[in-house]
Amino acid sequence: MFLAIAAVMALFGCGGGGGGGGGTPAPPTTATLKLSSQGTAGTNIRGIEVTVVLPKGVTVAATTTVDPAVMETNAGVVLLSGATVADPAAFGQLKPIASYTPATGTSPGKVKIGLAAQKDFSLGEFVTLNTVIAAGNLPVATDFSLEEFTAFDQNGAAITPALTPSFVADIR
């Protein structure tokens, strides 16, 4: 019996172990942020403005504009998601707009995002931001932050009580 067990182990290896592979994992090259809004249930949103503050070494693909200090984000950097794609008619002709201000000295890079819908949309995820991580940088989710968040109603007035923004970061 012992001989049979030894033969099976020789054929299939000892199993388990997880294989060392050694080496370190590849450093991250992208971070995807999914931005959301929270607040009073039933709140209808017609527009949102928010600024994402990027950590050191994180940028977005962007094109220089007339003002080199403020760039226009390229297609695919800011995408509608969650509640904003639940009703395609709400954003049929209005796409998100976003500008990128690169980091300078001690000032972090920032992406300012604006959404204006043709119809109301609800609380929850509203946009996805795709960023690039430069070699040698290892950001974590808490290195990103949101500021200057305002949600607007169908009349263009800030929604009160104010909604709360949040995000989930997927760093790979």
Describe this structure in words.
The protein has a six-stranded antiparallel beta sheet, with no helix packed on it. It has one helix and eleven strands. The protein has a single domain (25-154, 164-171), classed as Sandwich (Immunoglobulin-like), CATH 2.60.40. 23% of the residues are buried. The protein is mainly β and 172 residues long. Mean pLDDT is 87; it is low at 1-17. A hairpin with a 6-residue loop joins β4 (62-64) and β5. The N and C termini lie far apart (49 Å). Helices cover 6% and strands 42% of the residues.
List the helices and strands and how they pair.
Elements: H1 2-12, E1 30-38, E2 45-53, E3 58-59, E4 62-64, E5 71-73, E6 78-80, E7 97-101, E8 110-121, E9 124-133, E10 145-152, E11 164-171
Antiparallel strand pairs: 1-9, 1-11, 2-8, 2-10, 3-9, 4-5, 5-7, 6-9, 7-8
The N- and C-terminal alpha carbons lie at a distance of 49 Å
Query: How many domain modules?
Result: 1
Helix content: under 10%
CATH architecture field: Sandwich
> Which stretches are low in confidence, meaning pLDDT under 50 for 5 or more residues running?
1-17
Q: What is the CATH first-level class name?
A: Mainly Beta
- The arrangement of helices and strands along the chain is HEEEEEEEEEEE
- Average pLDDT metric: 87
Tally of helical runs:
1
Rounded to the nearest angstrom, the radius of gyration is 23 Å
What is the number of E strands? 11
SS strand fraction:
35-45%
Structural class: mainly beta
